[in-house]
Amino acid sequence: MGIVKNLTVLFFVILSLQVTAQEAPVFPKGEMATNTDNFTGTIWLNEFVKADSSFDFNITGATYKQASILDWHMHPGGQILLITAGSGYYQEKGKPVQIVHKGDVIKCTPGVEHWHGATQNSDFAYVAISPAQKGKTIWSGKVSREAYNQINHSDQHPKNDVQEIIRLSTTKWHWMADRQIDSLDALFHEKAVFVHMGGTMTRMQELQVIKTGSIQYKQADIQETTVQLIGNTAILLSKIRLLAVVGGHEVTNPFVVTEVYIKEENGWSLGSLSFTRLLTK
């Protein structure tokens, strides 16, 4: 029992060690865009590949500060967006707004008017692949700030609480992986408790751990999810494989994660998150 206790304490000490090196983005931001006639907010662009006689397409990286959006536009040759960071919106003319996340792939159909941009609480980045043979982007007008501000209440959100909790939980893993502290700060209840193997943390301690890189939640592979609603409380159980960097070492472990959400006037907030390591791989 003494050995087990000592190992548990040692594990928690390792979890608490700070990693000074920050995880760099896949690609550099590039230069800040200055042609604000075509967007609202702050956007950085990095042209990776320019079309030539051998490769007839352009590849460009774009990084959006939260709440920054591109105007309505269309691509004569279409475009493919590979989402590399954060959460964003994508909408085609006459269709509902979609929420997109890191790892998603968006196909912008040739000649279809659309817009895309960052959500209100998240930075956003993607790599755009654009055929060049059919011409440049055609711009068609601003996305009104009024329409953008109403997105959180529009039809792209789930219709029931179970779907909303699952969406929040999934989005939370993206925010933790990308260290989106402001978004997590808004989600975590002021009295939230976080239970790791060997110890517990307060809301502020958990945010600090994520911010400093003491624990880097790199990827959560969600395998099973169930939600139980009890009044204004939702209990989510998920079976995951978590890829993380702990004490400078990359590790993958199977967990059952328990998340408790509380519904208040401003929506759902996370009241508790607990990790239970599975004995089997």
Structural notes for this entry:
20% of the residues lie in helices and 47% in strands. The strands form four sheets. Strands 1, 3, 4, 7, 8, 9, 10 and 11 form an eight-stranded antiparallel β-sheet that branches. The protein has a six-stranded mixed β-sheet with strand order 14-13-18-17-16-15.
Give structural attributes.
single chain; alpha+beta; eight-stranded antiparallel sheet; six-stranded mixed sheet; disordered N terminus
Count of runs of 4 or more consecutive helical residues: 5
Strand content: over 45%
Q: How many β-strand stretches?
A: 18
Structural class: alpha+beta
Radius of gyration: 21 Å
Identify the overall geometry: globular
Largest sheet: 8 strands, antiparallel
* SSE sequence, one letter per element: HEEEEEEEEEEEEHHHEEHEEEE
| Residues in helices, as a percent range | 10-25%
> Which regions are unreliable across 5 or more consecutive residues at pLDDT < 50?
1-24, 153-159
Mean pLDDT score:
84
First-last Cα distance: 24 Å
Pfam family, one: DUF4440
Organism: Chitinophaga nivalis
Keywords: Signal
Domain Cupin type-2: 71-129
